[in-house]
From TrEMBL:
PROSITE patterns: C_TYPE_LECTIN_1 (PS00615), C_TYPE_LECTIN_2 (PS50041). Residues 1-16 form the signal peptide. Pfam families: Lectin_C. This is Ladderlectin-like. Gene3D superfamilies: Mannose-Binding Protein A, subunit A. The gene is LOC114468173. Keywords: Disulfide bond, Signal. It comes from Gouania willdenowi. The keyword Mitochondrion does not apply.
Length: 197
């Protein structure tokens, strides 16, 4: 029991350390645990940690790409970019239903806070063969906002129609974003914080 508590404490402490140290601590903790407690440590996790350490050591770009690839905190089937996770949903829905679907997954329709994030989302849309997908932008009393409460400081309008008639924003795969009626059915991108905060 002490070994399990010690292992838990080491893993908790390692979670605050840089990714390279996390991988090394996981391998070290697994190697130091007594044989009867080895069953408590999953072999795949040990192998993943060892592979991460090797990848960091062998990475030609230093260590950032290898660390990001091996320590993705996003849930399975979500894509990591910057400090957020993104997921493309291929079922067309109205803007309201799309937002509800993202809420059920623990997130919101995606906001876009800078040009790099826009380019990343645009690449997702292009790779899926789509032309237009919902984003989390909407107009309220003539003011554009993001449903996830991000500030609407970056904008990339391709075309903009009346916000009263067309209050919901969609991303265009080739240029910027536009707005349309929220009752249109489009595929969409959800986003969320990987740590649920």
């Amino acid at each position: 029991m002490k070994s399990i508590l010690l292992l838990s404490a080491l893993l908790w402490a390692a979670s605050a350390a840089p990714a390279e140290l996390q991988a090394a601590a996981a391998v070290e903790a697994a190697a130091e645990s007594p044989m009867e407690d080895v069953a408590a440590v999953e072999a795949p996790a040990e192998l993943q940690a060892a592979a991460a350490v090797e990848a960091v050591a062998e990475s030609p770009m230093g260590n950032m790409a290898a660390v990001e690839a091996n320590f993705n905190f996003c849930p399975q089937d979500w894509l990591s970019h910057g400090s957020r996770c993104f997921k493309f949903i291929s079922s067309p829905m109205t803007w309201y239903n799309a937002e509800e679907h993202c809420n059920n997954l623990g997130g919101h329709l995606a906001s876009v806070v800078n040009p790099q994030e826009y380019n990343y989302l645009q690449q997702i849309v292009q790779l899926t063969g789509q032309t237009n997908v919902w984003l989390g932008g909407f107009a309220l009393q003539g003011r554009w906002m993001w449903i996830d409460r991000q500030g609407f400081y970056y904008n990339n309008w391709s075309t903009q129609s009346s916000s009263t008639t067309y209050p919901c924003i969609y991303l265009r795969s080739t240029t910027g974003w536009s707005n349309t009626q929220c009752t249109s059915s489009l595929r969409f991108i959800c986003s969320k914080n990987p740590f649920g905060c």
